[in-house]
Amino acid sequence: MNATPNPYTGQVEHQQRLDDAAQLEQRIASATAAFAGWSSTPWEQRAGVLRRAAQALRVQAPELAALMRAEMGKLQREGVAEINKCASVCEYYADHAQAMLADEPIVTEARRSYVRHEPLGCVLAVMPWNFPFWQVFRFLAPALMAGNVALLKHAANVPRCADAIARLLAGAGLPDGVFGVLHIDNEQTATVVADRRIRAVSLTGSERAGSAVAANAGRHLKKCVLELGGSDAFIVLADADLEAAVAAAAASRFDNAGQTCIAAKRFIVLPEVADAFVRGLVHAAGQRVYGDPADAQTSLAPMARADLRDELDRQVRQSVAAGAQVLIGGAPLVQTHAGYPATVLDHVAAGMPAYAEELFGPVAAVIRVPDVATAIAVANDTDYGLGGSVWGADVQAAEAVTAALQCGAAFVNAPVRSDPRLPFGGCKRSGFGRELGRAGLLELVNSKTVYLA
Predict the structure, then answer these.
(1) 3-state SS of the chain: helix, strand, coil percent to 5?
(2) Which parts of the sequence belong to the Aldehyde dehydrogenase domain (predicted)?
């Protein structure tokens, strides 16, 4: 049994029984059997399921947000926004997947040659807790429209969110077996990855989880898509609009209690604006009010688990011991289960955890640099390569900086975010492969060459 304590109260509200071997076999077999029917279902019928799912998501948004709040601590309004985003990705692929996957004619010496995109079969999704619905739907909408069937192994602390997704899709008319939820542990997950009926794996999560799943998938010759950690740079150039930059920095770093892979984490600032930017960021951090995620006045949620809060505290304490300066926050909130305040660390430098490690919580690391060349070097001085943003009035100069960043997404004068229309993913230890956009859709198909002599 897995206990799932409420992140705000610490009280265990649910205990989830793991699937036994017979249940696991039944779900894999059911998905395998459903593939033939679903892959041959006409496009418009598949799209109809996703459109009905989008409608149900919007109607049920308050209840689904409350479920996230109870399981991983998300603010109610942030949860509603997440559910609405899930609806948008369903509608996007319902509208565009058929055209994206149309046969592509290629001119050769043949009478006719083209590339045909066909579904892979049963795809396993291993998903994290920080966006319990969005992470699933951004994988699931393109997977289903491509004609695949899917099994979900969700994070252990959000089992009711996983089950809610299954109920919602069933209510939208998705046939039995096309989507199934697996309540399993890591050892069982390895068994599923190895199963010959599983044709691909999509994982969003930690480096450790990604490395384990990728190694297992490689042993069994399974395609995998990995979206892992990030330590995104937020570069503030000398001519940046500081009011806009500070507002975006605070939202990117402190929303969802800082538990976002593409959140800005390392704030790399030029000397001309460093003091003013830091003052603004400290002020914004001070406005974040910790409290009950159900309370509309709360603007800083609890972290999802107490052990995650404790790990963040270790990173902060070790960084301070190495010379970082705490300007606000910097210690766990007393008498809370998993509370940590909005924190700003100044004068972060190489050799500190706040410089080298991902800070998956509401802690902003400010790194002061003398010039643009050093800013780029520091931005790239990380094992991660998920996203990065650059702030400056001279858009052409800011765009030139993005060209030098080693990451999967670079934004100018906007925080990094995911969008159904744009490919999403990283490089280096942030993973490989893409989700979203047409590129994400093509990850989940067999692109077959057809040649008619």
Answers:
(1) 45, 20, 35
(2) 6-450
pLDDT of residue 52: 98
Residue 375 sits in a domain whose CATH number is 3.40.309.10
Please give the backbone phi and psi of residue 341, each rounded to the nearest 5 degrees, phi first.
-80, 160
pLDDT in the model for residue 1: 83
Assess if residue 348 is contained within a domain: yes
Residue 422 within any structural domain of the chain = no
Q: pTM (2 decimals)?
A: 0.97
Q: Decide if 97 contacts 145 (C-beta within 8 A).
A: yes
In the numeric block, which tokens belong to residue 430? 């942030």
Residue 216 domain boundaries:
2-228+427-452
- CB 419 within 8 Å of CB 436: yes
Looking at residues 362-383, what average pLDDT do you find? 98
Asked whether the predicted pLDDT for residue 213 surpasses 90, the reply is: yes
- pLDDT tops 90 at residue 331: yes
Is the per-residue pLDDT at 2 higher than 90? no
Model pLDDT for residues 348-360, shown as the tens digit of each residue: 999 999 999 999 9
Active site residues: 227, 261
Look at strands 179-182 and 198-204 and give their pairing.
Answer: unpaired
Which SS3 state, helix, strand or coil, does residue 7 take? coil
Are both 219 and 299 inside the same structural domain? no
CA distances from 232 to 20, 54, 285, 406, 445 (A): 40, 31, 19, 10, 30
In the prediction, which pLDDT does 255 show? 98
Report the domain count for the chain: 2
Same domain (yes/no): 251, 206: no
Are 167 and 18 in the same domain?
yes
Report the alpha-carbon distance of residue 388 to residue 241 in Å, rounded. 17
Q: Residue 417 corresponds to which amino acid?
A: R
**8 A C-beta contact, residue 140 and residue 150:** yes
